[in-house]
Every structure is written in structure tokens, then in C-alpha cells.
Amino acid sequence: MLPYGRQSIDDSDIAAVSAALTSDWLTTGPRVDEFERTLADFVGSGVEAVSVTSGTAALHVAYAAAGVGRGDRVVTSPLTFVATAAAATLLGAEIDFADVDIDTGLIDPDSVAGLVGDRTRVIAGVDYAGVPIDVPALRRAAGDVGALIVEDAAHSIGARRGGRAVGVAADLTTFSFFPTKNLTTAEGGAVIGSDATLVAAARAFKNHGLVRDRARQRTPDEGPWHQEVHSFGLNYRLPDVLAALGISQLARLREFAARRDQIVARYDAAFADADDLTTPVVPADAEPVWHLYPLRVPAERRRAIFETLRADGIGVQVNYIPAYWHPVFEDLGYRRGQCPNAEDYYRREISLPLFPGLGDGDVERVIDSVLRAVA
């Protein structure tokens, strides 16, 4: 079975992890500091990176740093993995699902504007498939309520929108480094921001809320071992072993992105004239780094096409069931039909194999299989 995604590991990655395993540090140590510095430098000037254990942890940390709590509302897209909404719900927030643009699958600022209110704490946009959201448009949609913009960039590290790198425009940006993503630390993620207060809050939450700075402690004379917890947090610390892999992978991220671009271009050309297929749409000012290739097929035939491709050894996937379709949200009162564009996009979407190690012959195999399946 040809998978829809796969990590790209070479000898340099193995050497980096091996060196970390034989060092004095396995958990959080100097390689975590180096990874965070390297990641921040990659994103752009003026930002800091806080590494965490997963993309879901990154969302949880970002929402906590933004002050999301009981009584707050978070506006987000339903066309995403459930964690984008669930992480805010776990902090006590209520979710308002905004519809998406029917062409791009990105959160629609006009839909957001209709949901924003005095209790809106965060607007969380999702860089679907690797195409960045329009952060300035979301700020305009927020009006004067003071909502922060969180960019769920699990798909899009290295991408740009309006000439600005992902991670620079939003108040907080979250990355995922799961194996199928554009770079991997096996499991891992990060929160990126330029506001020192938000970054400090993120760093505290991911480390139990511990305060080791004597100037901030209430009883600093307790002893040189002393540490305090001023607000609750969790252990979301990335270990040095995984940070070492991340440092190595970052050095090849542009190479990964270039190969993904080549594959997407070949898919686009192959399917451009097929009446029953819709290829991904990219806004004019966006420079994506492709994580998924979301091909859209006739909704009434999607399941048959999916099963035919799987039977042919093509490991296609569907991304994503609208978040509020999950029973956990249905049980909170959410109902199908509230975001028709997102639901239409979901009913037609199939993600084709896309990863740097996908050879030209594999790409042609996918194309031939898709064209036969939809014929």
C-alpha cells in the first residue's frame, strides 16, 4: 500500500538522534534550546519558539497563553482535525464554527465576522493542506473586540501569505511535527510568537507553570532548590532526543518543500482537464508548502472512488470530517448543516499520497489509478 504520507529520514537524522542518545541529556536539555532558536530563526526575526510534545499540545498551550477559559468563545474552522476545537473546549471555552471558502477550504473571514462577539477571546484559523490563512482579513473580522489570532499551521511550516512567513503575522502560531507533516520530530510541535508576555505564558504552561526566577518567587529564600507554581500548567516538554531530530530535519525543510511542489504540479497538470475532478485552489498572494493534496471528486461517488483506490494499493485519506460532526460536539448541541461549504468540501475530498520520498513512478501510478477510478 502506497501511503498518503510518510516521514523522510536519512543518515544525518539517524546520526543526530544517535548523538543525543549517547549524550548526558535525553529529556529537555541543550538540544531543545538549539531547536527552538533554529526554528525561530527559520520563521523570521522577532519571534520566539516554544517547543512542545505534539501539535495538539501546541494548540492547548497557545489557547492557555491567550487566556482562554470558561465563558470565553473561540471561533474556528470545522475543516480541521478535531484538536483545533477540542483543545479550547478543554479549557472551558465554547466553540463557534465559521464556514470555509468553498474553493480553498480556508476559514471565511465574512463567516467569522458574523460570529464574533464580546466574549470572543480567540479566532483560530487553519492553514488547510499547507495554504496559509489571511491573517489581516481575520483581524478585520475581529473588529474591536480584542480577540487574538491563533494560526493553526500544522500543515504549513515554511509557507508565506502576502509576502510574510507563517508564524510572523498571527499573535500565536502552532506547528505540528508528526511524522506525516512537512518535518518531523517523531512526535512534537511548537508555539511561535513575538509578544513576550504571550510567549512567557506559553513557556510556563508547558512546564507545569514552574517559576524558578527568584525575582518572581514569593518565598525566594527557601533555598537554592526552590521553585514555585503560580498558575497551573502541564508537562509538554519536548525531549532532547526528538529536538535533535528536529534540528536535522529543519536543515532539509526547503528540500522537502521543493519536492512536494513538484508532485503537486504533476498532479495539477494530470487532473486539470478531468471534468469530475477539482484540484486545489491557491489564493493569489499565497505561497503554500504542501502537506496534503486535497483532490475533490463527485460527492455521490467519493466512497466508491476511495475504496477503489485503496483496493488498487493507493493509500488515500480524507481530511477532515467536520469537527462538529464528532459525537462529542453533537452531545454539546452542535448540528450538521451549520457550515454548508465545509460539509460540501468534506463530502468531495480525497487526499492523495504526498511526501518527499514519493518517486516519479509512484506519482504516475497514483495518477493512473485516480483517472481509472473516476472514469
Jot down its keywords.
375 residues, Aspartate Aminotransferase, domain 1, three-stranded antiparallel sheet, single chain
Model description:
There is one protein chain. With 375 residues, the protein is of the alpha/beta class. It folds into two domains: 11-250, 3-Layer(aba) Sandwich (Aspartate Aminotransferase, domain 2); 253-374, Aspartate Aminotransferase, domain 1 (Alpha-Beta Complex), CATH 3.90.1150.10. The chain has 13 helices and 14 strands. It has helices spanning 11-21, 30-43, 55-65, 83-89, 109-113, 135-142, 196-205, 240-250, 253-271, 302-311, 327-330, 340-348, 360-374, and strands spanning 48-52, 73-76, 94-97, 120-126, 148-152, 160-161, 164-165, 172-176, 189-193, 210-211, 228-229, 286-287, 293-296, 349-352. The strands form four sheets. Strands 1-9-8-5-4-2-3 form a seven-stranded mixed beta sheet, sandwiched between helices. Strands 7-6-12 form a three-stranded antiparallel beta sheet, with no helix packed on it. β2, α4 and β3 (94-97) form a beta-alpha-beta unit. It is globular and about 75 Å long. The model has no long low-confidence stretch (mean pLDDT 97).
Q: What are the SSEs and their pairings?
A:
Layout: H1 11-21, H2 30-43, E1 48-52, H3 55-65, E2 73-76, H4 83-89, E3 94-97, H5 109-113, E4 120-126, H6 135-142, E5 148-152, E6 160-161, E7 164-165, E8 172-176, E9 189-193, H7 196-205, E10 210-211, E11 228-229, H8 240-250, H9 253-271, E12 286-287, E13 293-296, H10 302-311, H11 327-330, H12 340-348, E14 349-352, H13 360-374
Parallel strand pairs: 2-3, 2-4, 4-5, 5-8
Antiparallel strand pairs: 1-9, 6-7, 6-12, 8-9, 10-11, 13-14
Helix pairs in contact: 1-8, 2-8, 3-4, 3-7, 9-13, 10-13
